[in-house]
Amino acid sequence: MNISQQLTKESAREYAIRILKENIISMELAPGSMLSENEISSRLGLSRTPVREALIELGKVHIVEIFPQKGSRIKLIDYNLVEESYFLRMVLETAVVKILCETDGCVNIDALEENLKLQEFYFNDNRTDKLLELDNMFHRELFTLANKQLCYQWLIDGMTIHLDRVRILSLQTVKDIKIVSDHKAILQAIKERNCTDAVEKMTAHLARYKIDEKEIRIKYPDFFKE
Question: Are residues 50 and 157 in the same domain?
């Protein structure tokens, strides 16, 4: 399990949730893995209470299954939940790009342009870990420009972890990765104030998990719920 330092003003519970989520999404904690409160507490330098609370929170979004007196387990990937995660992101993110296209005045896209340059660099360097990080930053910046930061926070705190696991597997499996070209197309549509095209490009970008499903299942058959 990869462990980073606790952030300033981050509570023990928030710290435990963040570290667990990061490791679940990165597949350091693979689908089907068993979790021990004692071991996690020791690794994080926390008491068992915030770790237990973190596991309960992750159980609420159906990513962790808790067995009283026995431990907890990372749930297998359920494509029904992935579909719900996609639906949530699609509704919010298509609305966000529409807002940006319809915003009066100039939208400052400098951060998005800089992000795309970094995406191209890490894409060419085959750094899939950095690509996912930059992908998330790109989408977060869209919400920030639309003044919907809280919506983004609610989004990542909820069901999107199910889609995120598939996204990381896609980056590790699919040879023809479209992240950079998708983002370029989305940004171009926003620059042109073309709402229809921006919505279409965002929808297609988020729906790529459906196209990649067959390849992912072949490579990681034990990760999925039948």
Answer: no
Residues 63 and 90 in one domain: no
Average pLDDT over residues 74-81: 95
Same domain (yes/no): 219, 115? yes
pTM score: 0.87
What is the rounded average pLDDT for all residues in the chain?
92
Alpha helices in the chain (DSSP H): 12-26, 37-44, 48-60, 79-102, 110-124, 128-145, 149-157, 160-173, 179-191, 195-206, 208-219
Shared domain check, 25 and 52: yes
Host H or E run for residue 34:
strand 34-35
Q: What does the alpha-carbon distance between residue 198 and residue 190 come to, in Å, rounded to a whole number?
A: 6
pLDDT in tens, 138-180: 999 999 999 999 999 998 888 899 999 998 898 888 777 889 9
The last residue of one of the domains, among 54, 74, 94, is: 74
Backbone angles phi, psi at 178, to 5 degrees: -110, 10
Q: Which domain holds residue 93?
A: 79-223
Per-residue pLDDT reduced to its tens digit, 89-116? 999 999 999 999 998 877 889 999 999 9
- If asked whether residues 16 and 102 sit together in one domain, one would say no
Flag whether 4 is in a domain: no
Q: Are residues 52 and 143 in the same domain?
A: no
3-state SS class at 65:
strand
Q: Is 127 exposed, middle or buried (0-12, 13-18, 19+ CB in 10 A)?
A: middle
Q: Which of 88, 60, 221 is nearest to 156 (CA)?
A: 88
